[in-house]
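Two entries, shown back to back:
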Amino acid sequence: MSPILFYAGVGLALIALFVVVFLVIAPPAPRVPLERRVAPGTTHVSALTKITDRTIAVIDGVLKRRKSGMFGEVELELASVKMTPSAFVLMVSCTAVVLGGVGVLLGGFTLWTILLVPVFAALAPLGAKIVLGVRAGSRRSKFATQLDDCLTLIAGSIRAGHGFLRALDGASAEMEAPMSEELARVVNEARIGRDPDAALDSVAARMRNDDFRWVAQAIAINREVGGNLSNVLEQTANTIRERNQIRRQVKALSAEGRLSAIILILLPIVVTGFLLVIQPGYFANFFSNIFGILAIVVAVVLLVLGSIWMLAVVRVKF
């Protein structure tokens, strides 16, 4: 037997004995909990939290000096994002850094890296903008579907003897978001002195809802000339309910066209990506001469124009 192997075995045996004695058999040193080592009334803040807070403060200072930002408070509020603009910008920036690192890995530290890094990094703010737009559109759509039930509830409260603002307050407590949030905003603004009609108009503009704008106008006219507001709201609710029913029928009838448009738009993109993954050299000739590059540019332009055309055709404005 080699002496080196013998001494190596003895050393490993001694290390194993050390582990057994000091880490398994021997009792661990007593540790005082963190709660007992911190003064009462103080909270422990980690170093990462401190760095994050300082970064957010710097970003917040930069955003305040600018009159308009890419991600403002109104845009985040419409998308139901419970974050400050500075925190959201920090999250998007971190995502852009991560995606830029993915571009570096995919580029393999070649000339393609110079192109892939900014493209992948730009996907973070672009994706965030798209997500905020989709969430805001979904919130506005849900607001429109809740409007007729909300008007019926407000009309019932007024008929029971409550005032208009008290009826709005009750409806904000009974309805779900986003209707409850918007009505609560109107009530709070009216309590601090803003005209309720102006508050209702701002909600209609923020939600981009013509039906609610008509409701706000009907309420403003009723407050000026008088009359039975509960009957006006009930008739308006019935009209909006019938309009929503027709809108849902139109949406169901146009679903096939919208699905066909989505499939036709995604089909060339998915097929191209699939071929690039399984057969990278399939498109090599397109990038090796000017005619191939022109063909790719023309194909992309035609795909964009065709997508816009199909989306415009299947979108039924009601």
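entry 2 starts here
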Amino acid sequence: MEHILIPPHGNTLVNRVLSEAHAAEAKTRLAGKFSLTLDDEQVKDVKNIARGVLSPLTGFMNESDFVRVVEEMRLADGTIWSIPFVLDVSEEDASNMNTGDEVALQDATGNLIAVLHVGDIYGYDAAHVARFVYGTDDSAHPGVAHWQAMKSRLVGGLIDLIDNTKEPYYEVNLDPAETRYLFKERGWKTVAGFQTRNVPHRAHEYLQRCALELTDGLFINPIIGKKKTGDFQDEVIIKAYHFMIENFFPRESATFSILPARMNYAGPREAVLHAIIRKNFGCTHFVVGRDHAGVGDYYGTYAAQKIFEGIEDEIGIKILKFEHSFMCKTCETVATSKTCGHGDDVRVPPSGTKIRDLLSAGQPVPADIMRPQIVEMLLQQKSLFVE
């Protein structure tokens, strides 16, 4: 019997990556034409769209999709979608483009990344977007601040990717076609996606094991990219999870790939986006814990779980909802308030600040927070954190 994987969002896995021959022809065709320079986060957006990570998007949003996503959390055709993907341009750049034009998209070094087939060119109200997408117009929110700093016009249109390089970490940067092939080869009919931005600690390991109890395979998929001071280095996260998978999970029960993508810190709405992305990778389940993709105190602790009420079936991926986990000294195991009846005095939460402070000082993290083998491996690294 044929092994059929979960369909991608919108039922078609987008592929806007040009072949070598077509990429060469596009480079020749674009020579001397108007170009736009993308920042690193926009380059990630372009590549994720073209590789199908953001299926069914085939380019930056035209106005009809943009307006409906902002206000109703749906694309113009009614498909659930929670975060607008747009390309902002200045008034001057907008005046140099017309619908139907081909525009060269390049990175900061001048390297040609993609072709943009110009669609709509339109304006927007940043405060309006912020209130709907982030639930606040407070400029202290990083997502709101990002929209406030954007250029005044947006341009939509199809993308054709010319530069499909995956540096750095190309060996662990799989696109959805590749993960789907891997899952199929391993015979996984059900796959749990797990997102993280940190090295593995006991509480996360507990959630991963719970997810693996319910599915055939575990797909650990950390977001890699723009960092703030004190964050773990990307290569440290990669190395720690390789160590975890090789030493603590059953053989071929778990796999790992990075997700180069921007963080919007949109809380509930971003949880929906993250679930859709993992569905595109081939996951049938997705773990959503406390304060998923949140920042500060803008969202309720479990708001990212509640947003799926009434839309989970329509999205088509099963949401695994977990409460805050911790090590209970009396239970002598990792638990949540659903499974542990003891008080906070015997509960040891996985404090990210404590973990960072101890590792920065070259001191071991207590075994009830992080596995000693992981700690030992981390302490051997030359550089753990972004400075």
